[in-house]
Structure formats: structure tokens, C-alpha cells
Amino acid sequence: KHAPRHAPAYNKRCKVSIMITSRETLEGGLTDDKSYRLVHLSNGLECLLIHLAEPMNEKNEAFSESEEEEEDLDDDADDDNDDDDEEETEGKAPQRAACAMAVGVGSWADPECRPGCAHFLEHMLFMGTAKYTKENEYEVYLSKHGGSCNAETELEWTCYHFDVANDFLEGALDRFSNFFVEPLMHEDAVGREVRSIEAEFQETIRCDEARMDELLFRQVGIKPFDSFAWGNAQSLHKGDTVARDMMKKIFQEHYHASNMKFAIISTSSFEDLESMILASALPRVRTSPKLPLQPFSTTSAWRRSSWHSRPLRILPIQTSTVKACSLVRIIPLAERLSLRLIWHLDPISCLTDWAQRTEDVCAHILGHEGTASATAELRRRGFITDLIAGTGTEGYSKSAACGSWFIILIHLTPAGLAQWPIVVDIIFKYAAKCHAELEKQSKEETDELLNELAQITTLKFDYGEQYDHSIEIVEDLSISMLPLYSADQPRSQLLRFNAGCFIKPDPVKLKAMLFILQNVNACHSIQLLSTEFLNASTKSIDNDTHNVLQRNSRLGTVRPDRAPEIEARFGTEYWRDELDPELLEYWASPNNEYDLSLPEKNAFLPKSLSLLPPSRAVSIAAFEDAAAKIDFHAEHFQLKAGKLPVQKKRKKLALPPPPQLIGKTYKNDRIKKDNQVSANESAATLWTQFRRSTGKEETDEEFIIVPREVDASPFEFAPGYLLCKRLPRFERPLAQIRLRLFSPVMLQGAGALAHCERAVARSLEIIAEQAYAATTADLHYSVHSSEASVILKFGGWSEPLPRLLDLVLKETVTQLQHWGDKDLTKYAAADDKYCRALRNAWFVDSAKQARDMRLILLCPELRASPTAKLLALSSEDVSAPKEFLVDALMHGNVDESYGETVKAIIEQHTGSRDLSYDRPPVRVARLASREIRIIQGSIDDECPTTALEMYWQLGPDDAALRVATELLESILEEPLYDRLRTQEQLGYTCSCGSRWTAGVVGFGIRLVSDKASPEKLQERLRVFLSDFRQNVLGLIDHDKSSKKRNITNFADFVQNDFLDHCKGLALGKLEQESISDVTDKDWTAVLDRLPFSTSIVEAIALRYITPQALCSTFDRIFGFGPPPHAPCLITATVGRGAPWLSAPHAASSTEYPVPPRALLDGTLYPDDTSLLAAFQQYGCNTPDDENNNGDNKTEEGPFFEWRGSSL
Predict the structure, then answer these.
(1) Residue 1087 has pLDDT above 50, yes or no
(2) Cβ-count burial of 395 within 10 angstroms (0-12 exposed, 13-18 middle, 19+ buried)?
């Protein structure tokens, strides 16, 4: 079974016994279904092989595959013969294969004269190799086979990674491995990639967090902290000869076998994976040279003494001239109130104690939100909304050469800003109290605290869900294998180290680090970020005030009377001052007025890890069987001279049963009017309807199958139902619960939406103290308002999860039922946080503003602009809901009894049992058959980017439309990116995708640029689409003289692209990587009111879709060929700081209005209300629209209606 597929040829050519020098097996967690093998190649490259298990299928008589021909599949066929054709099959749940290569060099190896060279090199490796010379050949191959790729350059490492369908791993690996052997680094690509780096930098400089970090590291004043890690066009001198030579020098000095770590994951056997590796270019990666004594670049302070050791330690920061504990006041871009306390920790302490993880223990203690924590004390006073403590895992936050930065980030309220010295005082007092209590504790008491943390991480490693997808697994592990993280670590502990296990916590080191963190003089600096510093104030600071806290508190609310300093690279305005010595003395003095102590014992730790009996368990054998049988081969299409491709017939394909329905039934009123259909019958009904829909004649312009009745029909569930599903492949003591709360009151416009969102914010603030223990025990919860509903998600250990559900649901319902409460004292912090989030919602991000505006226009009952919500909160009183319609889904280690427990909790808090109303239909604007243009200016005066969002509306939900638009996305995305981003350099973001908006199918393209106006972007997009239609699809020209050429082009497209994209997309729909993945897929079906087998139906449809149907869909969307064409809605946000606006030939910036004003087809509207009214009058389809010639024409009014959620 596990014999390598190509072993003889590979062994003969590559001499396996010589090329692989050693093999070592690594042990994962107790329930980890992956196997791990570490191999070393003779050139010094270390490779981690990860084998994904292939679960065996059980025989499923209800939904087995049959060899019957198509003509025997009508309802009257004799079913007695089905059993004769059944066969027991083996299959696998398709998982993506993935690879990653981590290289032990990053931006700190940049030459001082050309910062950004390491990042520049990362970009240039994608520009073709000696074997695969086309610049985008690697990306095209991945795109065709359901894959993706990316890379990132950090300070001390660079990582490249990709994922792809398993069947195409070998080809992808060969293309990927040649990056590190023979990259071409074409000079004609240099200018384009430098401009791409510049575009990345322009996005970064609008991020307040990045600006704060840059300011901190520039002020340190020693190398390499003050290096320019991002790089831009200026630092790279536009890619001149020196920059190119330095880039190539980094490749020569660092990109070799001993300085690289490779990881691969696949369902292929270890023998097959070894064969693939040896057949790739990895064995040809250069053997590492002897390490030179001098640094690689004489201008860099970062250096190595051995390829197998960490970088050399750089002098501690305390040796710099910067004085400790300074106050830095910073003007943010967005509206923010935050404070950061920053300590620097030595690299010796932060990386050599990988088994103790002392920094993580300190982060757990100081960031705790329990009853006697600093966070709880500050929240009770109304000073803060959030507190986060700890170090990062990479970059400046934690480096091998320079140590780590321990940061406590605090989001302040206005009251907290006015009392910021007290906020800081409570932090220092809490650290001192925790240190003092640890000193007094017995060894057994301290061990109990540390062992609890170790128990949590060990439980997660042994039994927890594998949340990471394949590409994240290999990325994390390849980086963890680098010497800078694991030089002192035995490889046998690699998986535990990567999972964050506390292997051996050390009380002595914990006390020593807490002693540093409670020491005021050890604090490096305090950063205070506030929009208060933007405005000049007439207030003066009274330095004669005797109260030290009162005297210094005004520093947070008054703009200094001197001009700010300006950081050179990001343009950040700031003031730096030494702190008042009396204030430092006050913080350091003992004070017992605060009720603070170490965290209490965690009440949410699971008491039982046993698996419940599989009562009424649902087998997923049919699902896996379906995945195994979706195969695509070129012979499915017959390419005959002078004829277009014709598809062959297929066999039947199995469908999985849906989840069990506890205590309820549901009906599908489009399949069987007024008849109840049991949960277990629905899959069979779905299959029957699907097969009956295949009988229509094949034509050039239509799909072979259009399962409209089956796939589009919504399920109408009774109120308060609960779906319960067991997943045999994920037999772990874990569960997932999803809830949706809805009331008709939530559909009352912007006021209801805003009150609902604010109620959620309040509930999260209130439960934070109690629920924090659950999150530390590796339970997860989230509550958010979305499209006139409240969604609650829970996951983690199945035994304590209902207790968390009870806590969160009770408070959420309470706040929703009293959302009009105006107790400003009680809710001041939560309300301030929510309103500030609304004011910042569209700040900086022009693409989000354009996207949100489209959705607001299409779904006015479910969406509202941030401005409209803020106005509604202050001017509208909306009746609060009293009862709720509840949807719920539960997966994992559950049974009927568990489900009844959860159901009882839901009914207790929501009162959903006696509800008599159904959810009203969701309305979506029906666009008129013409192009509609909406243009706004950006919220941010200095925003440099312009975003264009083009949306084509196709009509009510239909499986054929969904499959066609998703396939079009797969085929179009890479050429679009390559043409507009890589070649024409219009901007850094060029994307397209299928859109599903409350039961209406559409297609969208998004462009973000700092170089062109919306009109220019639209023009370049039209040219690209025309060229793609003619050169790739090849059927736009119907002239007889070119007919033969067009058919040839089309046949090439089918053979080389179409089938590969179909297979990659189909396999992606059938992936199951974790319980969460499966839960989210079924939950989406519940919310959208689609069958649970939707992904199966769509995967089947991809076997039947014709290339002609794809062309027809392309023409309908983009307006090629005869009508009808899809109507188009264009929403654009013009960055008011865009460089092209100031160009001599550019239009005046006054032509683009400032929000909430907007242009609709050239007419200016003053606010959201008037714009929405005008859009519904002129932009939507109406019965008397004389200009409407499209297929959207209807007498039903200007809206589509969908009787389900629009999620």
C-alpha cells in the first residue's frame, strides 16, 4: 500500500541511499492523526515530512455509488438492482498538501546603504527560474490546482510557502524548489517589484501600531533596531545596480542548505514524499560554506558564528544613550486612546528557557482578567476597555540577537486617559503584589499555579483540535526548526515547542522576571496615544500642584505648547519627555489600597475527557466516498477537429446524510408542498431531485445540470430547534456550538442595528471578568452582531462548554432586551469603545468603505453606514426585542442527552418555545439593467489609495450560477493579478470573486491603487477583460476566417486550464481539516437556508459544467456578445491624499465629495438617506422602467426576497 509510486526511477536517478543520510520519527499528541518524520539530505538540508491520515470508509448502503447509466435514473426505475452494483470503496477526505521553506536570514542582514534588500530578494525569487522561465508560472500552476502561495520577510528569517491539491503536489514542489537553486531575477522585473514593495510600505505607514513600533525602535538608537526593515523605493534607490548586487549577495551568503529548513504535509506516504523531494531541486540546494569570521555585511551588526547556532548577541539596550522610562506622547491617525508600557528583556533569558516559557507565564499573570486582577480593577473604575500583556513571537517583539520586548497594551476610556498615572500605578502595584505573593508561597502552592498552565497546554497538545490548516502547519514548523528558536532544543521536543507547551515551568525564573516587570526603573518607556494631542488647548499645566497624580494626569489631555518632533520614515508626530521623578517614586512606593492578587484556580478546566457513546451518530463515509470519486481527466472532453468539446456521461455519486435534528422536523416547501420531510430523508430527496434535473439537452450556452429546485430551496425550521451531529473522524473530547438570535425588531433600520451592536458590546464588557478563565482553559467564544442578527460561537472541551454557553447567552439576551438602557456610568466604557469603533470603521481602509457602501445599497434593511448608526443612537429610541427566534447547531463529542442540556439552556434564556412568528424575508435591491456609479471621498484626509468595487448582479440563488461564478473566479484571479498588479503596477490589491448576497448571486472585482482614478482603473479593467475574452477563451471573434484559430485556442484552454480549475475547486469544496471547518460549513448552510449537502452538489456540478457555459457566464457578466447582460453597480472611494489628485492633468479634488456626501451617476447627494432614496428610485429595477431590457425585468418590485439569513 505504501510503496512509493515512482521509487524505482527516483532511486536509480537520485541514489536515495546517498541522498538521505538519516531519518527520525517525531511523536505528536495522543489524538494527532498526523505522522511525522525528520530526514536529512546529504547536502545538509533538514526536511520535516508530515503524513496526513486517510480515514477508512464504512459501507453506506443508503447512499452508495451505482454504475447505472443516466437513462435509468428516473423515479420509476427499478431500485431492486441497486444493491447488485454496490461496492465497498476506500476514500479519503481531501486535504490540501502544503510546503514551506524557512531561511535563517531577514531584514537585519540588509546592508546599511540599501535597506530592504532581503525583502527585495523575497519578491524577486517569484520572478521565474531557469527551469520555469515565465514570471508567473508558479502562481498559475497553483491557481489551476486549487492552491495559493505567499512569503514573508521578518528580521531574522524569511519564509516561503504554498498549498495545493494533493494530486498536484509533485509539480508544485518542483517549481517551488527551483526558487532556491536557479532563480532568474530578471532585470526587467526589478522596477515592478520595487514599486510593489513601495505599495506595501504605503499601506504600512497608515497603521498606527506600525508607527508606534517604528518610533520605539528608532529611539533605541543602536543597530540593528534603527534599521529600515520594510524598505521602499527610496531606500532601494529604485532597484539600482548596487541594490541588485546586494540582493544577490544575500542570496549567495545565506540561501544554502544548512541555513534552510523545509516542511511538507500531504496524504502521500513517507516513501512517496521522500521520492518527490529527491526528484525536486531540493537535493541541488548548495551545501553551506564554512562560516566566515567577519560578518556577512560589514555594515550590519547582525551576524552568525555557526550555521547551527543562534545569531550573536548584540549589546543590551541599556548600553544605549536613551534614558529609561521616558514618556512619549503620540498623535494617531485614527481616533485612538491607548497606553503602552514597554520593557526590554535580554535574549539569553527569552530564548534559552524554551521549556519554561517564563515570558508566557508572566503574560498570563499580568494579562489576567479575573476578579482580583489589574484588568478587573481598571474596568471597575471605568478606565479601560482592554488590556493585553506579553511578547510577540517574532520580529522586533522577540529576536535571537536582541532579546524581546514585553509590552502591556491598554485601551483607555476618556476617563482612563484623564487618569493615566493611576492606570500605570495599578499595573506596577499588581506586578509587585504578584511577585510578593509568589515569594511568600510554598513550593507546592507555586507548583500548583504553574502545573495548571502546563496542564492546559498539554491537554491542548494531546487532545485539542488541530485548528491550523496545512499551510499554517508547515509554515510554523519550518520556522520553529531554525537555530534561532531551537538551537538548545532536542528535535524530539519540536512539536511540543511549536504547540506552546509549558514543559517544565521554573518558579525561580518566574520570580526573577516579575521582579524586573514590577521595577519602575526597569521600564524602558511609556507611550501615550491620543487624539487629544491634535487640538491646541488653552489649558495650561500647573506645575505647582502638590498632588503628583493630578499634576501629571494633565499630560494626557493637553497638547504640549511646543512643536512636535516628526519621525523621518513614517511621519509620526510625537513629544518625548522625561517623567516626573516624584511620579516615578509614587509608582515605586508600596500601596495596599487596591484589592489585587494572583489568579485563582481555573474553574473551567475539563473534569472529564471521556468520549460520549455514539448515539445516533452520523457516518461521513459517504462524504469521503464522494471526495474520492470526484476525478477529472482530459478524456472527459472529446476534442474533435472542427468541433467544440462534448462531455461524457458520469456515474452516480454518493451524498452524505445531514445532521440529526433533535426533537423537531423541518420542511422544504419547494420540494414537497406542505409535507414534513425528516432530516434523514432529505439527502435522498436531494439526490433524486438532482438526478432528475440532468435530463435536459446539452447546448453551447447552458449548463448540463441546473439543480435549482434542490439547491436553492431554503429550509424552514421551527423556532428553537437544535441540530446535533457526530463526526467520527474527529473523535476528541471537543464540541462546537453555534447560535443565531433574531427578532423582527432588529429589522427596523439603522437605529435597531446600532442598538443591537451596542448591546453586544455591553454584554462582552460585563462577562469579560468571568469568562476570561474559560479562554485560558482553551475554551473559545465570540459574540457579534451581523445583518440584523446576533451570532454566538463556542468551542473547546465538551464537558465545561455548556457552562460557558449559559454565562454568555444569559448576559447577551439580557442586554438585547434592555438595549435602550441609558445608564452612562454603568456602560460608559463599552459605549465609548463602540462609538469610537464606528468613527474609525472607514478610516484608512478605502477598500472597506467601497465594499460596505455596496452592501448598504443592496441590503438597506441589514446594513447601515457608521455615520447613520451614530446619528441613530443619539436621536432614535427603538423598542427592544423581548423574544427571539433561535437557530442552533452543535458538533463534536455530543449525544442526545448533551443536546437536550444545551437546548434547555437556550430555551431558559431566550423563551423561544412559544414563538408563533416566522422570520420575514430579507430584501435585496434588484439592480436596473444599466451601470450605476457611486463615488465618495475617503474619511481620512491623507488616505493615498483609491478603491474601485465593481459588482455584477446575476439573479436569485441557483447552483449553476454559484458554480459558474466560483469557477470564473478561479480562472480569472491569477491573470487579473498578473496583468494589473504585476505588469501594469496599478496597485497592490487586484482581486475578484463570486458574491452571494442574501440569496442573490453576483460577481465582483476589487482594485485598490494609489496611482489612478476610478475612471482610469475601470478603463484598464475593461481592456484586460476584452483581451482575456479574446486571447484566452478565444470565441469572441465569430469571423469565418478565424474560426479554426478560435476553436484551436478554445481546445487548448480546455486541455490546459479548464479541467484543472474544475478539479481544484471541487476538491476544495470537500476539504475537512478540523471540527471547526465542518461546523462552519454546516452553520453557513443553516444561516443561508441551503441544504447541508450543498458543497457536494456543487462539486458534482463541476463535473458537468461545460466550457461553453463558462464563456456564456463571462459574456453575460462583462457585457460581451448579445444581451441580456448583468447590471453593474460601481462603488468607489477616492483617497483624498492620493498622489494622482495633485498631478497637473488630474481632475480637481473638489469633484470627489467628502462623506457622507456622495455622487450617484454625477449627481451630488448630501447624506446617506438621500443617496439611498435616489438609488432605490433610479438604480433599482421597477415595473415601469422603460429602459429595462435585461433578464432582471419583473413586476414584483425593486427587490429580490430571500426567506433566510443573508450571511
Answers:
(1) yes
(2) middle
C-alpha cell at 83: 444493491
Q: Torsion-angle region of residue 955: left (phi > 0), alpha (psi -120 to 50) or beta?
A: left
DSSP track, 206-272: T-HHHHHHHHHHHHH-STTTTS-SS--TTTTTTT-HHHHHHHHHHHHHH-SGGGEEEEEEESS-HHH
- The terminus-to-terminus CA distance of the chain in angstroms comes to 44
- pLDDT band (50, 70, 90) for residue 1027: very high
- Grid cell listed for 322: 536613551
Going by C-beta distance under 8 Å and a sequence separation of 6 or more, which residues neighbour residue 663? 721, 722, 900, 903
Asked if 626 and 1096 count as a contact pair (C-beta separation under 8 A), the reply is yes
How far is the C-alpha of 557 from the C-alpha of 134, rounded, in Å?
57
Q: Which stretch of 59-63, 407-411, 894-898 has the lowest confidence by average pLDDT? A: 59-63
Three cell numbers, residue 473:
502547519
The answer to whether residues 575 and 329 touch, using CB atoms and an 8 Å cutoff, is yes
pTM, rounded to two decimals: 0.85
**Contact at 8 Å (CB) between 719 and 883?**
no
Alpha helix ranges (H) inside 917-1030: 959-976, 1014-1028
| Residue 282 phi, psi dihedral angles, 5° rounding | -60, -40
Residue 620 grid cell: 461521513
Encode 883-909 in three state secondary structure.
CCEEEEEEEECCCHHHHHHHHHHHHHH
Dihedral angle, C-alpha 605, 607, 608, 612, nearest 10 °: -90
CA triplet 721, 1089, 965: central angle to 5 degrees?
A: 155
- Distance (Å, whole) CA 558 – CA 536: 8
> What would the grid cell of residue 937 be?
471621498
Relative orientation angle of helices 7-14 and 270-279, to the nearest 10 degrees: 40
CB of 988 closer than 8 Å to CB of 981:
yes
∠ CA 639-644-648, nearest 5°, is 60
